[in-house]
Amino acid sequence: MVLTQDIVIKVFFSEIKIKNRNFSIPKNSSIILAPTHRSRWDGLVLTKAMGRRITSKDCRFMVTKPEMKGIQGWFLKRLGCFSINQLSPSLSILRYAVNLIVKKNQLVVFPEGKINKYGKKLILKEGLYRLALLASKKTTSIFIIPIGIAYSQVPPRIRGKVSLCFGEPLLVNKSQNLSIKKFNEILNKRMHNAEKIALKNVGR
């Protein structure tokens, strides 16, 4: 944390703006963070905004298998990441992710499924909502928090600016009757509305 938050982030970025963090969520609820995915810096920026120093909880990131290879994978594992096969997720990984949610850990899932550098409009992956529905059978309520992340340059450059903005949370519970398509449409809209504010904050 000292290396990533106190040295790397502060040296690389000249300014970090965090907006709308004061959202209201019942104390004992589980949360899933659902950010836009514009750069490999997203995880460190998100941890700065919602990591242990802010919430007393670590962020646990669900990432794709290719991202966990080599030196990058070694580093990501130590930052709290674990991998999932998007095409055929194993039952053990699904159980692990559900347990993180039920035990009130901060699970981070990138709904776009990959780095979407220029913010091209994508159909969100179905996994996040399916996972939340599975977990809702074991806990009373889950709030999914849409997040927009924006950088002053694409790709991010040293001494550039970064902004992170929180959108309006979505509630998921066992009586949920929204289709995956409808839920993802709502989530996508809230993520991109939050990103618009973040983009404005960095002058784009």
Describe the structure.
The longest helix is centred in the C-terminal third of the chain and has 22 residues, at 180-201. Helix 4 links the parallel strand 3 (59-64) and strand 4. Strands 1, 2, 3, 4, 5, 6, 7 and 8 form an eight-stranded mixed β-sheet that branches. The protein has seven helices and eight strands, in the order H-E-E-H-H-E-H-E-H-E-H-E-E-E-H. The chain is globular and about 45 Å long. The chain is an alpha/beta fold and 204 residues long. The model has no long low-confidence stretch (mean pLDDT 90). The protein has one domain (2-201): Glycerol-3-phosphate (1)-acyltransferase, CATH 3.40.1130. The two termini are 30 Å apart. The protein has helices at 2-12, 42-50, 52-55, 70-78, 91-102, 127-136, 180-201, and strands at residues 13-19, 30-35, 59-64, 81-84, 106-109, 142-151, 160-166, 170-172.
Mean pLDDT: 90
Overall morphology: globular
Structural class: alpha/beta
CATH superfamily: Glycerol-3-phosphate (1)-acyltransferase
Radius of gyration: 16 Å
Residue fraction in strands? 15-25%
The description of the largest β-sheet is:
8 strands, mixed
- Count of distinct strands: 8
CATH topology: Glycerol-3-phosphate (1)-acyltransferase
Question: Helix-strand pattern, N to C?
Answer: HEEHHEHEHEHEEEH
Q: What is the share of helical residues?
A: 25-40%
Number of helices: 7
Our count of domains comes out at 1
Name of the CATH first level: Alpha Beta
End-to-end separation in angstroms reads 30 Å
Instruction: Tell me what the CATH architecture is.
Output: 3-Layer(aba) Sandwich
Point out poorly predicted stretches. Answer: none
